[in-house]
Amino acid sequence: MQTYLVVGGAGYIGSHMVKALLGRGHEVITLDDLSKGHREAIVGGDVIEGDLGDRELLGSLFSSRRVDCVMHFAAFSLVGESVEQPLAYYLNNTGKTASLLLAMKEHGVGRFIFSSTAAVYGEPESVPIMEGAATEPTNPYGRSKLTVEKALADCETAHGLRYATLRYFNAAGADPSGAIGEDHSPETHLIPIVLQAASGKRESIAIFGDDWDTPDGTCVRDYVHVNDLVDAHILAAEHLLSGGESLTCNLGCENCYSVREIIDISREVTGREIKAVVTPRRPGDPARLVASSEKIRNQLGWRPSFDDPRAIIETAWKWHSEHPEGYSS
Ligand code: UDP
Asked: Is residue 327 annotated as part of the catalytic site, yes or no?
């Protein structure tokens, strides 16, 4: 049994992580400022409400508790917002992560799992994207994450930190129990918005452009179930805790599904008519983002159990239909 600090454990992916770690018998401490997350989403373990940039708080936590591994999910993640407020992104995503890493270094906590993003690649030259592809983010969000990736390598050289950087593609779905799920405010992601249109919470879904260079003209993405993401973190942590080397891996399924395909599958899953309206492209969207997942499969033995979007959308629909208003807090 290990002790994990889950930073951002009240958020969408963090809350699934906390549940999975507890389910495997680990001790879990969640640190979250609850600015975007939901207390209700934390199913157990210890909870500290606070800021990851608060060195004093982190210092007293690391002095009083042995922490084997830190998993860091707390970040701002809206591309458009990052263009309008770049400093908020550099401060929160980059600066506060540096502060967390400093507190870890001062207290000898040497294992770190970092939630990075496909946005570090920018507009890919080809798909599926391999980890060695050029990293040229097209927005401050991607740059705020890529800077942390570089800092992690520097910390390894200087202080011997061992880390796993996981570059997420499109996280989706919900825990099959229906107890926890995705609840962002405002919601910007495709699948929850499509399901809100299915449940009548929205009148329609806007398709951001149907003139892309893709088979049906709508953008293609690689959707990964949130619990498969979580499993990859557990494998990465076990790898580091058993003395494995630092690594950077894509976290996608090599699935290619277009916006129109996701809407069609959602119509089948929900049995509802979902009105879709084509609107202009959303600035900053690449046409296709599909991961090569070869590295994580080979190095960590990761095998996603939800390998098609129908199964992913079914779990998301269970959460949405049982919690039409999301969390109550
Ligand atoms: N999308 C859309 N309408 C929406 C939200 C998203 O057409 O209301 C498209 C978006 O342009 C992208 C895909 O759905 O091509 C996935 O978008 P999402 O925001 O879920 O994830 P991203 O790929 O931007 O991380």
From this structure: no
pLDDT value for 329: 74
How is domain 3-171+223-251 classified at the CATH fold level?
A: Rossmann fold (3.40.50)
- 283 by Cβ neighbours in 10 Å (0-12 / 13-18 / 19+) ranks as exposed
- Please, are residues 258 and 214 in contact by the beta-carbon 8 Å criterion? yes
Domain chopping of the chain, boundaries: 3-171+223-251, 173-222+254-290+306-328
User: For the domain bounded by 173-222+254-290+306-328, which CATH number is listed?
Assistant: 3.90.25.10
Among 259, 265, 281, 289, which is best to mutate for testing ligand 1, by the most ligand atoms less than 8 A from CB? 259
Calculate the dihedral angle through the C-alpha atoms of 163, 164, 165, 169, rounding to the nearest 10 degrees.
-160
Contact 133, 121 (CB under 8 A): yes
Spot the catalytic one: 4, 121, 141, 168.
141
Is 208's C-beta closer than 6 angstroms to any atom of ligand 1? yes
What digits encode the pLDDT tens for the residues 150-172? 999 999 999 999 999 999 999 99
Number of H helices, E strands in the chain: 11, 14
Strand order in the sheet with 111-117: 46-49, 27-32, 3-7, 69-72, 111-117, 162-168, 247-251
Token pair of 71 as six digits? 């998993």
Distance 256 CA to ligand 1 centre (A): 14
Query: What is the value of pTM for the model shown?
Result: 0.97
Cα 29 to averaged position of ligand 1 atoms, centre (Å): 32
Q: 191-220 burial by CB neighbour count: b if 16+ within 10 A, else e?
A: bbbbbbbbeeebeebebbbbebebeebbbb
